[in-house]
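Limitations
The structure tokens in this dataset are predictions for the assembled complex, not deposited experimental models. Users should treat interface geometry with appropriate caution, especially where small molecules or nucleic acid strands are included. An illustrative entry is reproduced here so readers can see what is and is not provided.
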Amino acid sequence: MIEGLLTGLYGLMTPMNIGLLMMGCILGTFIGMMPGLGPVTAVSLLIPVVLTMQPASAMVLLASIYYGAMFGGSTASVLINAPGESSSVPTTFDGYPMAKRGEAGRALALCAWGSFVGGTVATLLLMLAAPTLASWALTFQAPEYFALMVLGLTAVAAFTESGGVIKALLMTVVGLMLATVGTDVADGVERYTFGIRDIADGLSFVLLAMAAFALSEAILAALRNEKVSEEAKKAARGDVGSLKLTADDIREVAPTMARSSVLGFVVGVLPGAGATIAAFMSYAVERNLATGKRREEFGKGSRRGVTAPETANNAAAGGAYVPLLTLGIPGSGTTAVILGALVALGVQPGPRLYVDQSAMFWTVVVSMYLGNLILLVINLPLIPYIARTLAIPEQILSPLIAFFCLVGVFLVSFNTFDLWLMIGLCVVCIGLRLLDYPMAPLLLGFVLGKLLEENLRRALLVNDGSFAFLWERPVTALLLAISIACVLAPVVMKLAGRKA
Amino acid sequence: MTRTQGERLAALAILLFSLGYFVLAFGIKAPPSSDDSPFSARSFPLMLGPLGMALSLVLLVRPPEGAPVGAAGFSWGRALGLIGLMAFYALAINHLGFVVTSALFLAGGFWALGERRPLVLGLVALGVSLGFWVMFSLLDVKLDWGVFERIWS
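Predicted assembly:
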């Protein structure tokens, strides 16, 4: 492990990687702060940029953008009661009341320290858990891989934040369908290309990610016509107060940070659960553990209430890297985008990644330690200045995001067909998003589609076309049983809720 | 449009999409070498098609209950304006070149969403476009000037 860390340190300590790390942290914070724009938008926007980089550098940038955006999400929650993304929603419960009573700086400092501790503990746990999980997964064969991917897809669908399970499963299937467009690798025949040469190699992941997240978000913002609130204007020009924590603050929140870090990491590791569930769960745990006066403070500006979700959502972001880097299974929309970028860079996801791309793995781990420190040391003092971006009017922001998407996609291929395809897909995605169809399962289905098909093909060829491997191999059967449980759980819970 | 109508329409559209996908799967020509294989290029699509149809049928028969789509507060003109400008971008970039097309797109986008300050419309739009052009030129990525390049030369 020491050797791995030294390898990672050596890999990270290039001017390029350090520059990317700092840029990612600052840019992530900046984008994450914008209401409505979360980590997935931030990461999607950067995909075209990373496609020209070495995989390790690309991962350093994407990872720092990811936790930078998680960090930035808390600022809008505290200052203007408008979370940048759903995992920062519980932060508003106590962060905004603290800001209203003139303690915005203190609340932001609690968020920053919570994010730092959560992110650092998660990186430590990732370092410990990943090798074990990867070595176990190296014994997997095609049937287990197939089952593992089914689990990843169903878990993300089951725990999706918007719409119902059926909609999420349907989006997963549509994503899988889109993944079949192009030339079939095994048989060499074209599928669903309609003779169009531009899609003979398949649909571009970049344009689908842009259409589903960043671009449709920009158009939806224009559609909603949200004005910059007075609070945002005030926060942008106002003083947030002292960013220092007292010894009493530290005593008060230290146990919360410890509990929320572990809880967030564990929830983050589970495919599909992700940062939002971790944030809400940790908030609920802290509220239930609190007694007397401390409990009454929840919802009115409790320091524990601010710290818990921010610690947990950053820990969950770290935890999500465990299945991503060891099994090749992303646990959320953001990690699905990161996985897609890895595939586009020619990196084969799965347990072999940890063995074959060991230097990359350790570089990312070390960058996470350093990145969390950068967020604390550099970004925290910059928050009052970065907060000024909250006042950027939507009429400026939306065209700029749309422009970044257009340029990003055009520069990958210099082909206007890709632009037309992205615009068309974006219009469809807007319609679906308005009806609460979740986009993360769509992208996950698209990213995992080819691998899922390939492993099913191999499993069937080895088993002479028999599907008996689904129940005859214990690990495969177990993984598929968990997948079925994931799909049925929300239905059962809903029925139980109705009876109650 | 009520929420239920919207849900039904979306489910119907995905049902038709899945049906079309399934029917077209039969047309995928697998090579003769895969005749005896239990899995060919059309196998996976033949599994996905019925799955998509079944799930969209469930949504079609039992659309989720919910509030009407909040279309009343939506500014459709702004969104359509921005989409129209994106189409303009795709049409114009090979003719007018990167800088001019980008500047026109940005200025048009700012204007369509309500910005009226000439300084923002002109300077920000042109500044961002030129900034990108300079940045990519430094990275050795050539973004041409379209028709203007031919005029100059």
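Some entries come with short summary sentences. For this one: Residues 3-71 of chain B form one domain.
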